[in-house]
Specification:
The structure holds two protein chains of two kinds.
Chain A (H helix, E strand, L loop, with lengths): L1 H11 L3 H28 L8 H11 L1 H9 L3 H21 L3 H7 L3 H37 L9 H27 L3 H13 L1 H15 L12 H9 L10 H25 L4
Helix pairs in contact in A: 1-7, 2-4, 2-5, 4-8, 5-7, 5-8, 5-9, 7-8, 7-12, 8-12, 11-12
Chain B lengths: L8 E9 L4 E10 L4 E5 L6 H8 L7 E6 L14 E4 L11 H12 L4 H9 L15 H13 L5 E5 L7 H16 L3 E6 L2 H7 L2 E6 L2 E7 H7 L4 E5 L3 H10 L3 E4 L5 E4 L3 H10 L6 E5 L3 H8 L8
Parallel strand pairs in B: 3-7, 3-8, 5-6, 6-7
Antiparallel strand pairs in B: 1-2, 1-4, 8-9, 10-12, 10-13, 11-12
Helix pairs in contact in B: 2-3, 3-4
Classes of the chains: A mainly alpha, B alpha/beta.
Chain lengths: 274, 305
């Protein structure tokens, strides 16, 4: 616990936390605006899926409860990105600023250092989750009211979505620390994680679309292996037609987080620090 | 004394093999408490690798390095036992000096007040709230020493601590390390600055190409290499050379007009000159020079491997 405290102190005593905070707020505002518009489109029936399978999805998404879960988890996309980057930087900055030597001199049992970093990253993740969720609970009922569908806060599905949102933040934080260990270069880690997270989902969607069309239909089921897709799946309010069940998404994310965490810890234990 | 004292550093058949390079090769030596030990060697001799293995940062291929009989990674709260200064530039650029020390205090379970005491010790109190990127190289070295002193350790390990220090800073560090050793602590310092080492160290461990070349008290190492010489200046060089030839001393003329005499003490040379009525302008015993001895000992073993 002493080490988690020290890790949080490290984060607090540099400018990274308020830089990330300043980035997060406008991104949150943009996400909220975007969700408002898309919810409006769904409610007013302007969204058109085209093909029958897609149309069924649109119909499902258009239900007030699904609009609600989407709105009450606003900030997840950008918040997770910030958490992912911060978690990776918690590790890579030690090597970037050559402080790894000092850190491991104070605590030569390196696995405890990495565990403390996981702990600190999770605390940061839950903090970002709490802030975005608080903003959502304040602002979303106003939007729901404007859309004339009630605030839906009585629905257990909404609270489940908020809880799962916390789980998503937490798992992405673990993933970020693990990947930070694997990609030790600060620049490479932030660029790779940032790009893969933002553009990766779209690129993978296209790749899977092509594979599905030209190779085999079953490959489509593997798309859930893309972490961002898994994350979205885990959060979807009710079972959507044509998608794997929600727990598969959770399982995939947990799997990635565990692998990244374990591999990252083992590598750190063995590596020479010079 | 029976067995090693509790604060001795013992390096035992330590070896580090990188892919093709044997950075440290079957190295054994002992560093005693209560003395300053200089750890000397040309660039790339394996000094830093040895210190990093001692501190558990690099895993040895073979052999062990222990402090008071225990490996560094086995020490409970190691910075209360061992203080280390490894790199001058090892702090986050955007963090203040004081916060750098507080971060270490928190991880080690030391009170925050230790950071202020350590800053005071190294004279950095006025710069406590300045960010690390605004520190000069000398200030960075001082911060490193402050970090090493946080846990009031019995053993100090310093890698090139004099780098970047001005003459006043070097003198300050020399006094500090000597005082710490006088309190019975173990002090191991690596350096290239041989003149400084001659002033600072009680013992030396000389390393080249990963192997131990010589270890022992400075005087012994100096004494073992060549006889002492005396520098002589005279306007009657030919007459003096004749006179010194009679007492079997060897004379080698120097480019600056002086001559270096070996095989005779200063008194004998003065007497021979007096007897031969030769005028002397200078008669200086040359103390053993660590630099010369070092260069002789490591000749042919320096350089890039």
């Amino acid at each position: 616990m002493r080490l988690v405290n020290a890790e949080l102190f490290k984060l607090r005593t540099t400018s990274i936390w308020w830089i990330m905070g300043i980035i997060l707020l406008p991104l949150y505002a943009a996400s909220l605006g975007f969700n408002w518009l898309s919810s409006y489109a769904l409610v007013s029936g302007q969204a058109d899926g085209g093909a029958s399978d897609a149309q069924a999805q649109v119909d499902a998404v258009s239900q007030p409860i699904n609009i609600a879960t989407n709105l009450y988890t606003t900030g997840q996309y950008m918040g997770v990105l910030i958490v992912l980057l911060l978690s990776a930087i918690i590790v890579t900055s030690e090597f970037f600023h050559l402080t790894a030597t000092t850190t491991f001199l104070v605590t030569p049992r390196r696995e405890t250092v990495i565990l403390a970093k996981f702990g600190a990253a999770i605390i940061v993740a839950l903090l970002v989750w709490a802030i975005t969720t608080l903003l959502d609970l304040l602002l979303v009922p106003i939007i729901m009211d404007a859309l004339n569908i009630g605030n839906q806060l009585g629905e257990p599905a909404v609270w489940r979505a908020i809880g799962l949102n916390a789980l998503a933040f937490l798992l992405w934080a673990v993933l970020g620390v693990g990947l930070g260990v694997l990609i030790r270069s600060q620049l490479a880690a932030t660029l790779i994680l940032g790009i893969v997270y933002t553009i990766g989902t779209g690129v993978f969607a296209i790749i899977f679309q092509l594979l599905e069309t030209y190779v085999a239909k079953w490959i489509q089921n593997l798309e859930v292996l893309v972490p961002t897709t898994a994350s979205q799946l885990m959060l979807s309010g009710t079972e959507l037609p044509g998608n794997p069940p929600r727990w598969v998404g959770a399982l995939v994310l947990i799997g990635y987080a565990v692998i990244a965490g374990v591999v990252g810890t083992l590598i750190t234990k063995r590596r020479d620090i010079s | 004394m029976t067995g090693p004292a509790t604060d001795d550093i013992v390096v035992d058949h330590l070896t580090k093999q990188y892919k093709k390079l044997r950075a440290v090769d079957d190295l054994s030596f002992t560093v005693r408490s209560g003395r300053v030990t200089g750890f000397l060697g040309p660039n790339g001799a394996g000094k830093t690798t040895t210190l990093r293995m001692l501190l558990g940062l690099v895993t040895p291929t073979a052999g062990t390095a222990t402090i008071g009989g225990r490996k560094y990674v086995e020490l409970h709260d190691p910075i209360r036992h061992v203080g280390a200064v490894l790199e001058a530039s090892s702090a986050h650029r955007g963090r203040t000096g004081r916060n750098h020390l507080r971060m270490i205090c928190r991880a080690a379970g030391l009170p925050d007040s230790r950071s202020d005491e350590a800053l005071e010790l190294v004279g950095l109190t006025p710069a406590a709230k300045r960010k690390f990127k605004g520190y000069s190289l000398g200030m960075r070295q001082r911060l490193g020493i402050a970090a090493a002193m946080l846990g009031d350790p019995r053993v100090l390990v310093l890698d090139e601590p004099a780098n970047g220090l001005d003459p006043e800073g070097i003198r300050w560090m020399r006094d500090l390390l000597k005082a710490l050793a006088a309190e019975g602590r173990t002090v191991l310092v690596s350096s290239h600055l041989l003149g400084e080492m001659q002033l600072l160290a009680d013992d030396v461990v000389i390393l080249a190409a990963g192997k131990l070349i010589r270890q022992g008290p400075v005087e012994d190492v100096l004494g073992s290499m060549g006889a002492a010489q005396v520098r002589v200046r005279t306007p009657q060089a030919a007459e003096l050379t004749d006179a010194l030839g009679k007492i079997n001393a060897t004379v080698s003329p120097q480019p600056d007009g002086t001559m270096l005499v070996s095989g005779a003490e200063a008194a004998a040379i003065g007497h021979a000159a007096f007897a031969a009525s030769v005028e002397l302008h200078e008669l200086t015993p040359e103390r053993g020079d660590l630099e010369q001895v070092f260069l002789q000992l490591t000749a042919g073993m320096a350089g890039i491997r």
